[in-house]
Amino acid sequence: MRIEYHRTLIADHVRIARYYEALRRVVRKGESVVVDIGTGTGLLAFLAAKLGARKVYAYEAAEIGAVAERLKTLNRMRNVELIPGRSTDIIEPPRGDIVVTETLGNFALEEFLVETMNDARARHLKAGGVLIPQGVVQFVAPVTASRLRDELCAWDRVGYGLDFTPARVMSLNNVYIRKIEPGDLLEGGRTAAVWDTVDFRVSNRQTRKGEARWTLKRGGRVHGLAVWWKATLVEGVELATSPLAEPTHWEQLFFPALEPLQLAAGETLKAEIRTRSGFDAGTDIAWSLAVVSADGKERGRQALSLAKGFLP
Fold first, then answer.
1. What is the spatial distance between Cα 213 and Cα 167, in angstroms, rounded to a whole number?
2. Among 5, 11, 99, 192, which residue carries the largest CB count within 10 Å?
3. pTM metric for this prediction
4. First vs last Cα of the chain: how many Å apart?
5. Per-residue model confidence (pLDDT) at position 1
6. Strand 220-234 relative to strand 252-263: parallel, antiparallel, unpaired?
7. Cα separations (Å) of 24 from 9, 21, 49, 57, 237?
8. Helix, strand or coil, per DSSP, at residue 108
9. What are the distances in angstroms from CA 222 to CA 87, 165, 186, 287?
């Protein structure tokens, strides 16, 4: 059991404050039934109970559920019922007026959020109920600083007359959790584009794909892509992992380029991202980068994927 991971969640006061505010806006004292999916240590379930929820059902499949049970007893949360297991596996689950989950990763959907929310909306939520979060928007921006990719190219600096190129290619076909600064990004991140939008109030595909383009005002080099997300918990309450937002325990993702792409002023960088996440298949991510000249011709296309980054 990784208690240290859960400590980082508890230490993230931005995360807790946003979720508390979202629950505060929708919990009706003495009336609301709340379902907390992936409760962890039970924090969101306990907050819902403290806000006056009549009943809280809290699902947790991992060993941390045993800690949540002890904390429930210690804090006298008599109206919280902890249910061991995944919410998707429960037959005829009790329905709630509110379903809340914080199964968001550094990559928004890596904890199988789409699959969880499709099932939550269909089987755990009462008609007219509230889902928290309501939706997630995923952003992408070109990385123009070399430091993130340079770190991954240590294979080129082995020396002694040795060539480790295949290992470098594998390293670059992976996605990295990194603290990305605005200065690492094209125009300080102000030109970030939306590549995917997910509204959990409707059924969604587990395969996500999108495209973004940037036309450079000045020539420059692109070393990869930065990806982050913004979640709308309820109307007026948002939580974001942008380099421009208040820091949280989440960081950004770096999608490397195989080779730096040199663009002239007026040329366009085109990026495509495709992901699939689910309990059975895990998470798969593929991305490509290409330069489009001012006359519309594409050059320098690079295609990368996690599948190429693992040992055969």
1. 30
2. 99
3. 0.95
4. 29
5. 59
6. antiparallel
7. 20, 5, 11, 17, 11
8. coil
9. 42, 20, 8, 14
Q: What confidence tens digit (pLDDT) does each residue in 18-70 have?
A: 999 999 999 999 999 999 999 999 999 999 999 999 999 999 999 999 999 99
Taken as a whole, the chain contains a residue count of: 312
DSSP state letter for 144: -
Q: Which CATH architecture has domain 3-102?
A: 3-Layer(aba) Sandwich (3.40)
Bridge partners (DSSP) of residue 9 are: none
* For the chain, domain boundaries: 3-102, 136-309
Query: Per residue in 134-179, pLDDT tens?
Result: 999 999 999 999 999 999 999 999 999 999 999 999 999 999 999 9
Q: Which residue blocks in 27-83 are alpha helix, DSSP H?
A: 43-50, 64-74
Compute the distance between CA of residue 269 and CA of residue 102 in angstroms, rounded to an integer.
34
The tokens for 25 are 């806006």
- Give me 93's structure tokens: 């689950």
